[in-house]
UniProtKB/TrEMBL annotation:
PANTHER family listed in its UniProt record: LMO0824 PROTEIN, WINGED HELIX DNA-BINDING DOMAIN-CONTAINING PROTEIN
Lineage: Bacteria, Bacillati, Actinomycetota, Actinomycetes, Kitasatosporales
Superkingdom to which the source organism belongs: Bacteria
Name this protein carries in UniProt: Winged helix DNA-binding protein
Natural source organism: Streptomyces griseorubiginosus
Amino acid sequence: MGDAVRYIGVGERRARLGLRQQLAVEARVGTPEEVGEALVALHGSDPATVYLAVGARLVDASVTVPETERALYEDRTLVRMHGMRHTVFAFPTELAAVVHASTGLTVAARERAALIKDMAKAGAPDAAWLKEVEESALAALARRGQATASELTQDEPRLKEQFVYAAGKSYEGVHTVSSRLLRVLGVEGKVVRGRPLGSWMSSQFRWAVAPPHPELDVAEAQAELLRRWLTVCGPATEADLKWWTSWKVSDVRRALTAIRAVAVTVDEGPAYVVEGDDGPVAEPAEPWAALLPGLDPTAMGWQQRDWYLAPALRPALFDRSGNVGPTVWWNGRVVGGWGQRADGEIVWRLLDTEGVGREAEAAIALEAARLRGWVGATWVRPRFRTPLEKELAEATG
C-alpha cells in the first residue's frame, strides 16, 4: 500500500496563513518588494489596496507610502498590470513575463478581437487603422515616459475617435478609441499603470510602456506561477487554483503535474502543496492581529474560505459582486471589519467573538493605532464599499 495522504487541519492552515502571508509579527518584512515576492500578487483594482496591504506587513509601517511609491514608480521593482481573472494586480516586475504568458495571452486575444468587432459594427476604421494608431501612441508614450490618455491624444489625435458600442441595446454607449485601446494594450502587456494623478489614493493614473520581458512558453509559465502561489497559499483545492488563476481545469492539472505537487486533504476535500511542503508547520510564536484592506490578497486568496472566514460574516463584509471589504483578523481568521471616519479615526467592530478575549481586543486596538499612525491625514475610502465599512465610516461619535 502507498503512503497515506496527509490531512492538514484548520489550525495548521491558519498557522501557515499567518507566517506565509507575513501577518504574524515575526513574519513581517522590511520592503514592499519582499511583500510582493512573498504574496505573488497584490490586488491593484483599488490603488489604496496595494499600499494598505503592504503597510500591514511591514516592520516599520511609517515608510509604507514613500517606499511603495519608490517600488512602483521609481525603481519599477513592482508593476501594476492585468493578470488573473482579468484583474489589475501589482506584481514583482520579474514576474511580468510569467503572468503575461500564463494568463494574459488568452485574455488579450479575446479583448483585441472584441475591440475590432465593436468598431466594425459601428462603422469605425478597420484593424489596419487601429494598428497604425497603436504604434503611434506607443511611440508617443515612450517619448513622454508616462502620460494620461488625454495627454496622448495631443500627440496622436486619432485616439479621440469615438464609436457607438452595442447600438440599440439597453446598455448602448459611446466609447473612445483611447480608453478601449489602452485597456487592450494593458492586457497584452505592452503598457502598465504609471504614477497616479494626485495622492496614492487616486484612481486616475498615467500610463507607461511596460518593462521589456521575454516571451515564455505558456505551459512553463503556468507551472512557475502555480508553484509560486502554492508555496505561499498551499494547501489549496483544485477549485481554489482554478478560481485564482482563471485557467481551465486541464491547465491547472497540467501545471500541478509539472511542479510535482503533493496531494493532501483538507476539510473541503483533496488539496495540494508544493513538493516537500507536506510536513507539519509550527504555530507563530505569538497570536497576531491584523487590519487588512478591501481586496487584500489574503482575504481574496482562496475560493473556499470557510476555514478562515465564517459564512455568517459575509453579508457584512462583501459587496454584491463578491469583493471583500476591510477585515479584522485574529490569529488566522476574520473576526470583524473596520472603516475610517472623516476625521481620520480608525473604527472597528467584532462580528465573531468566539475565542476573542482581552488579549485579542488589545492587539486589534494596537493595529488600528498603527494603521492610523501611517495613514495620517489621508481619508481612505475603498473603491468597492461594503455594508459594515459604510456603517462604521459614516457613524458619528
